[in-house]
Write a structure and sequence with these properties.
202 residues; 80% helix; Four Helix Bundle (Hemerythrin (Met), subunit A); mainly alpha
């Protein structure tokens, strides 16, 4: 929901930094994989009871996630890069709640599993919409230039990181926050289904 408003603010500095990285010979795929490793390190830190360290690593991971596209735009975007970007994002999104499940299974297992399941449902609508949008030649840059059609919704990247930050700042409240997050993911998925019904029915 907030990505379209945040992109005009963050894209100029990201593009400038991405151009410098590209000039230094650093490729977009390397930045993507670095972001993924940082995200997995965040989940590991959380699993070992260090949520604030996890939050710092999440921030670094998301910075890399923003920079990989900027590096690609400064060089030559590739389909492989787009594929790696979306895979890395979804691995990261699952890893963080899994870290909280592992650190306190008794309290966090059910809400954490429910959140990951809600992510799966939301991802299915997101990717399904992107496939049909590509088939019909649709495009959008409202949420940044992507290798796929990035359909909006109630929850997007900005809101996801805000919830992850909440988990890290108030780990004892993981369960109620996760339930709210899961519900909003399902609302987002339902909205995307309704949008697909309106747009793709022939």
């Amino acid at each position: 929901m907030l990505d379209r408003f945040l992109r005009p603010v963050i894209d100029p500095p990201l593009n400038a930094a991405g151009a410098r990285l590209a000039a230094a010979g650093i490729g977009a795929n390397a930045v993507t994989l670095t972001g993924l490793l940082l995200g997995l390190a965040a989940a590991l830190a959380i699993a070992f009871g260090m949520p604030l360290a996890g939050l710092s690593l999440i921030a670094a991971s998301r910075l890399a996630d923003g920079l990989d596209g900027a590096v690609a735009r400064a060089t030559r975007p590739s389909d492989l890069g787009g594929f790696l970007d979306i895979v890395a994002d979804f691995v990261f999104y699952a890893a963080v709640p899994l870290g909280f499940v592992l650190t306190d299974p008794a309290s966090n297992a059910v809400p954490g599993a429910s959140l990951i399941a809600a992510f799966y449902v939301n991802a299915a609508t997101f990717l399904g919409f992107a496939i049909l949008a590509a088939k019909r030649g649709l495009s959008t840059v409202a949420r940044g230039r992507k290798a796929w059609y990035h359909s909006g919704g109630l929850l997007e990247g900005t809101e996801t990181i805000a919830f992850f930050a909440g988990f890290c700042l108030w780990p004892a409240a993981f369960a109620p926050i996760a339930w709210v997050f899961a519900l909003l993911c399902l609302v987002t998925a339902a909205g995307r289904v309704a949008m697909a019904h309106d747009l793709f029915r022939d």
